[in-house]
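re: ur question from yesterday

yeah so i grabbed the chain u mentioned. its 285 aa long if i counted rite. heres the sequnce exactly as i have it in my notes:
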Amino acid sequence: MSETPEVHGTAENAGTTAATRKEPAPQMFVLAMSKFSQAFDAGDFAECVNWLKQADSLTAGHPDAVTAHREACARVITACAAKGITLALHTGNVLKQHRDLADIIATCAASLTEKYPDDQGKQAMATVIVGYTSQLSNRLNRVMAVEHYVTSAEKLDGVLDNLFDIMSFSVKLDSLSEEALPGLCDRLALAHTAASNADCSLMWFIFKRFSDWDKAELYCRRAAQWLKHNVESPGKVDPRFDECDATPVVTALERAADALKRRQHKQSKKLLKAAEAALAETTCV
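ran it thru and got these structure tokens back, copy pasting raw so excuse formatting
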């Protein structure tokens, strides 16, 4: 009498099991993302884009790889926007570097628009980033075609609007966005530079009419905005300075910005000194 062989599973079940089993990302994808991380840590965002392009062709059929790739794209966008804000508040001008950063943002944003087939919310965010990036590029081209040396406060404010808007969406597309953002202490250091720039924008006595009130107000207002942004999107934490409290600095900068907006010279100078004093009280500056 022959025995009936034991059946452990049908061909259909085996196929289902194979389909649900997650295959590891290809070794070359892992290598490309490793090179991406090295470039990112070095701040070489153009090289980051190069490795992201290589990695993109290796993500098919690997959901984890797709997620890692799209988050890396968002991380580069965040880092470039943050770099653009830093440059603007350091120099008070639109620079060639801003256009280079905008080109990198545009490349990564275009890649993201096809990466969220099952998430309409994130798909919409990626599309909005593309729109803001296009507006940013157009603004930069117009500014650099006319204002070769000194950027007006109005034009710089428009560029900063776009950079903050882009960043407000890109941080929501990346679970590791803090890796792309400067920490609170770095933001406080930038606020110190911005406050000093604002003070230098105001002239004394008979030269007061040459003061750049709008640029000074922009420095203070945007520095305060950058510090407040840390609450929603904190950057890297430096354990040596984890007790920093930016609240007094934000208050001082906002008061100075208000006085500058009302063209109150003596009060503006006084409040700028108060802002610098508040910054000096932190453990970061």
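noticed a couple things. Residues 182-285 form a domain with the Four Helix Bundle (Hemerythrin (Met), subunit A) fold (CATH 1.20.120). also Confidence is low (pLDDT under 50) at residues 1-20.
anyway ttyl
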